[in-house]
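worker-03 picked up job from queue 'complexes'. Input manifest follows; two sequence lines, order preserved.
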Amino acid sequence: MSEAQQFRTGDTPLPDVLILTHKLAREYNMGSETVRALRGVNLQIRSNEYVAVMGPSGSGKSTLMNLIGCLDTPTGGEYWLNGQKVSDLSDDALARIRNKEIGFVFQTFNLLPRATALHNVELPLIYAGLAARARRAQTAHALTRVGLADRMHHKPNELSGGQRQRVAIARALVNEPSILLADEPTGNLDSATSAEIMQVFAGLHDQGQTVVMVTHEADIAAHAARVVTLRDGLVAADQRQAA
Amino acid sequence: MSFFDSVRLALLQIRAQKLKSGFSLIGVFIGVTFLIIAWSIVNGINVYMTDKFAGTLVGVNTFHLRRRPNFTPNISDSTWRAWARRPRITFGDAEAVAGGINVPVITAWESTDRSIVEAHGKKMLDVELIAATERYFDIKNLRITEGRAFTTQEVRSGSPVIILGYDVAQKLFADRDPMDQRVHIGGLPYRVIGVLERQGKLLGFSLDRLVVAPALSPLQDLVNPPGVVDALIVKANTIDDMREAMSEAEGIMRGRRHLRPRQDDNFALETSEGVLHFWAGIQKILVVIGPGLVGVALVVGGIVIMNIMLMAVAERTREIGLRKSLGARRQDILRQFLAEATTIATVGAAFGVAFGVGLSVLVNAATALPARVSPASVLLGVVIGAGVGIIAGVYPASRAARLDPIAALRQE
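worker-03 finished. Artifact:
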């Protein structure tokens, strides 16, 4: 945290700070009880960082992931994404942010089973309102980037686990988002395939992509240049490490 | 997401789940099929009634003077008994009216019954026997293809000559020339002097099963009591002339029957409007029942589609969550599911239209019912089908659109 600039309410983040959370809090009302999943997280992530978020279950990492991914809105604090304050936006505005700024990679891939790789990757572009011709070109490009140029017309059940996750990564990349947000991306893969996927992430990071990855596996987190550890809804540790 | 993309997505989904989609569109399919076929039958009969039925049985710009109306829907017993007490139309009445009308008209007497016609040992049952005067053929547009009509002279003298309908000639004289041959009706012989042009069928009944003899021939005694005719037919050149002739005929008849101003006519002046009125009565029933049945089928169809869509939303919760995470707004999800419901319903409606049109053509060709497909019904069928889809899709689609993306993604 030492080199990070101190942020106060009312400030705006520096231009190269992609993600900034300030006293970010999220509470859930479970009947009479209030669960405080996040209790004031301060975090700054710059462009082209490769960050792993770790923590035991219940530490609040999924909640943080949902907030960073604009799937959820905080109950307190601020969240700035790419120079825009998104913590108080409407549902539809958040949908646009998700579409433009964030590429999700899920543990269970979440591909449409009956659609080809091409159609799966194309989805974000459909919601971006692109015409079919432009979509085709961008989709093909994204699939080529993850090394699946020859599998475009295959359906998920015709692909291996690693290939499925690479389709999902291509889908996350197709809109050229500010951040690639991965939630346990290797959770459903064997170690050889996990290594393959980590290589893809490293390659993307080298090309300038900002990557944020939530994981509970230390050896997966080791691929990242920076590891943020959460405990009880607060940042417990924030370390840089040699890749 | 564009409209085109929504429909493409919907078609993709429907193709992926052919069986389920097939079941869900059955309701709309049946509704629209029924709509098309019911409408084309009503339409067909309507065209038929106006063009052919009214024209053939009564005639254009023509009225009949009768004891009571011929085409009578829903007559009460008391009315019927009152009609039966009325005096008949006599030769004297017919002559007085025919001679007393001042606008240019042509007139003919007509008396009919049904009986057996025999020739050379062959019999034909249930033939319409018509005793008429010589202008009857002109008024009824009956053309004689062989031989000739009878003359005024033959009518006056009551010559036992006869003109055969096409079917009668075919049946009794299959391979022989009927001209100058004899037919027997009620034991008396008639000489054949002509054969009528073939007229075809009307609602399944042959129009060619008839014979026509002079009004004063022995046939008259077979079909009516002495001195009585069933009808005096009066044909004018225009509708205005016809109305004028009708009021003159009414005046003449009231004078002959010594009716006081307050008394009702005890005779009937029937025009083709009467026939059309009769048809309008039937049509009114069809117009009420038809849409009712169509409506029930479509409501059922809509409920089926709504259920299928609710199931689809439940099954595809995770997909909805995914789409939202990829940037789908509420309206995108709403539109996707609406498009799906509407596409299912429209496809069902399109099949219904195709099937209904096919069935109408078949009904027209294979049965006595005249069916004619109305273009308006095709358009309405598709529009209603799409409408049912939209209405049935609104609730499931809005449920899908309101799903929370995090909860939806977590769903197994």
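worker-03 released lock.
Chain B is about 60% helix and 20% strand.
The interface with chain A takes residues 1-2, 5, 12, 16, 318-319, 322-332, 405-406, 409 of chain B (CB under 8 Å).
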